[in-house]
Specification:
630 residues, mainly alpha, MFS transporter, seven-stranded mixed beta sheet, Plipid/glycerol_acylTrfase, MFS, transport, transmembrane, 66% helix
Length: 630
């Protein structure tokens, strides 16, 4: 993950503002939970179940009531000024909380949970809506990865800090907690003041419509076909995450047989996994949106969750075994790794979805779409609590059964994602395969546009060319290929999923050529990227051949930007005709060096095939030289 962003004034202050806020939220919530459980309930004789559920409800309720209003505020006001005001609200809330702690005003502390929930609900939309204004398009994935990493590490540190402060006991614990809450809020106000301005794209009045506004933004978000699946996917993550985290204390007690430290250790595994998954997402994406990581992440959650559900209780541990003793038990480490794997899959899964939501939301409605997401998240988190009550309470099943259900749900999510849009997932798997087979180096990949139609032209060296280009491209490619190969009985399903367009020579099937060109035109008009090999056949001498006239026919019908590319290092490989016919010679090397060079984009108006041919020749010479020099 690029650490450069953390040194940029346009990102670093915001990062620390949101991280400090998440830390303070969780410090307050967890400390209050410990106080209620071990101090207040004994003093007042309150019911544990009622108090804990009341606390959870007081924090969640504002997300249902005020998220939509927060989205409207973020769309109509300067986002930096709104963040500063919200941090002042946090400071005021924590100052009152500090007084309530010192004077043991427990009812007031519960009411302040509602205020903290309100501040978080109003901050949520602006938190993600401000990023596209301050970050470049190729920095969004990295920015979101840092935000997710910072958030979950802040949750972990806040949870551990709450336990550490409460361990001080009595009045000392309350004073230490009060000072921490106010100090963190002050640091947040200072960091927020350094965030650059982020003016509204549609300034105007902000009507007060909390409940009706929530219903309206939900309807608007879910009716938007481009956003619906991102909203549902993010909310599914929070359903799973809330379910796992809610059951951690009971799992640590009944299956791990551990003391309080076991819950913190398992939570640490989950948070570290989220951070590593976010890091891996940024590394694989290389600044571009990789939606193929979403089903990949869901599959990893499924695998980790399945293994966790099937783990038997630790026979070596007795009830309330200290953490130091658990660390010597192999079975505990297996559980720890499983939760880390679940978190890792979550990081891969959630970062692309948040980036997708930011990119596809209209600028003047972006915060409201994120608010719709927050409302839906809150509903799914409430649903997760209901699912836990139904399975564990009404149905009388045990925790491993519930974890198995969660694993199956994540597997179902992966299948739905792959069936709905298989090409990004297929492209990602091809990307992994290609990097296992070759030492692939890319030059100029950023020239492929993040959105919109484009035509890619490349030299044709080997039978692996289409796979290499498809795996290297940040977007799924539609590519023309020989009809005879396309209709191979064993591979046709693969080519169909990959979006290949079969084409035959005009002498064999003139009507088929017209159909192929119509399919290419349709793909371009729908904003896709189409790749062709204008030579029409594999090279026999390793050089770039003459381009055929079909290229100019395509551009005449659908003038779109043209991106020339060239491959170097594949001539002489088993899949090429170098040194003998392809597949008819013994492979001479493993993980050969391959260079892919992307040239400047050509305007379609007035561009001739001969100009593109010369551009590809120049790129081919450069790619060949680079492949030989590495």
């Amino acid at each position: 993950m690029s650490r450069e962003l953390l040194r940029r004034p346009r990102f670093a202050p915001f990062f620390w503002t949101q991280a400090l806020g998440a830390f303070n939220d969780n410090l307050f919530k967890n400390a209050l939970l410990l106080l209620m459980t071990f101090v207040v309930i004994e003093q007042r004789g309150w019911d544990t179940g009622i108090v804990n559920n009341l606390a959870a409800g007081l924090f969640i309720l504002p997300f249902l009531l005020f998220s939509a209003w927060g989205g409207l505020l973020a769309d109509r006001l300067d986002k930096q000024r709104l963040i500063v005001r919200l941090k002042w609200l946090e400071l005021a809330t924590m100052s009152v909380a500090a007084g309530a702690l010192i004077f043991e005003a427990w009812e007031l502390l519960l009411a302040l949970l509602f205020m903290m929930g309100t501040q978080s609900a109003l901050f949520g939309p602006v938190k993600y809506a401000i990023l596209p204004q301050h970050l470049k398009p190729d920095e969004l994935v990295s920015g979101n990865a840092w935000v997710e990493l910072g958030t979950f590490l802040a949750i972990l540190i806040g949870t551990l800090a709450a336990a550490a402060l409460m361990a001080l006991g009595g009045e000392l614990a309350r004073w230490a907690l009060s000072a921490s809450l106010v100090s963190l809020s002050l640091l947040g106000v200072m960091a927020a003041g350094k965030i650059p301005p982020a003016p509204s794209a549609s300034p105007g009045p902000v009507p007060w419509r909390p409940l009706s506004g929530s219903i309206a933004v939900m309807r608007e978000g879910l009716s938007n076909r481009r956003l619906r699946w991102a909203l549902l996917g993010i909310s599914a993550f929070w359903f799973l995450g809330a379910s796992y985290l809610t059951q951690l204390p009971a799992y640590a007690r009944d299956i791990v047989h551990g003391a309080e430290g076991a819950t913190s250790a398992l939570l640490a595994a989950f948070a570290i996994g989220i951070g590593l998954g976010s890091l891996a997402c940024e590394r694989v994406s290389r600044g571009r949106l990789e939606t193929g990581l979403v089903p990949f992440g869901a599959l990893i959650i499924f695998a980790g969750g399945l293994d966790l559900a099937l783990r038997p209780a630790l026979a070596e541990a007795q009830m309330a075994t200290p953490l130091i003793e658990l660390l010597g038990i192999a079975g505990f480490w297996r559980m720890w790794v499983d939760l880390g794997v679940i978190g890792f899959g979550g990081g891969l899964y959630i970062v692309p979805l948040y980036t997708l939501l930011q990119i596809r939301s209209p600028e003047d409605h972006r915060a409201r779409m994120i608010a719709a997401n927050n409302v839906l998240n809150a509903l799914l988190m409430v649903l997760s609590a209901g699912a836990g009550i139904l399975v564990l309470g009404v149905m009388g099943r045990d925790i491993p059964d519930f974890l198995l259900l969660l694993s199956l749900i994540s597997g179902l999510i992966a299948v739905v994602c792959m069936l709905r849009d298989p090409r990004p997932f297929l492209r990602l798997n091809i990307f992994i395969l290609i990097h296992l087979m070759y030492r692939l180096h890319l030059k100029g990949r950023w020239r492929i546009p993040a959105e919109g139609a484009a035509l890619v032209v490349c030299n044709h060296v080997s039978f692996m060319d289409a796979l290499i280009l498809g795996g290297a491209s940040p977007r799924p490619l539609r590519f023309l290929m020989d009809a005879e190969i396309y209709h191979s009985p064993w591979l046709k399903w693969f080519f169909r999923i990959a979006g290949a367009i079969p084409v035959d020579s005009s002498r064999k099937d003139p009507a088929g050529v017209r159909r192929s060109l119509e399919e290419v035109g349709k793909a371009l008009r729908e904003g896709e990227v189409v790749m062709i090999f204008p030579e029409g056949k594999l090279t026999r001498d390793g050089e770039v051949g003459r381009f055929r006239r079909g290229l100019e026919l395509i551009l005449a019908r659908d003038p779109v930007p043209v991106i020339p590319m060239a491959l170097g290092g594949l001539w002489g490989s088993w899949f090429s005709h170098g040194g003998g016919p392809a597949f008819a010679k013994f492979p001479r090397r493993l993980r050969g060096r391959v260079e892919l060079c992307v040239g400047r984009t050509f305007d379609p108006v007035g561009t001739k095939a001969v100009e593109l041919e010369e551009a590809v020749r120049d790129l081919h010479r450069k790619a060949t030289r680079l492949a030989r020099s590495r």
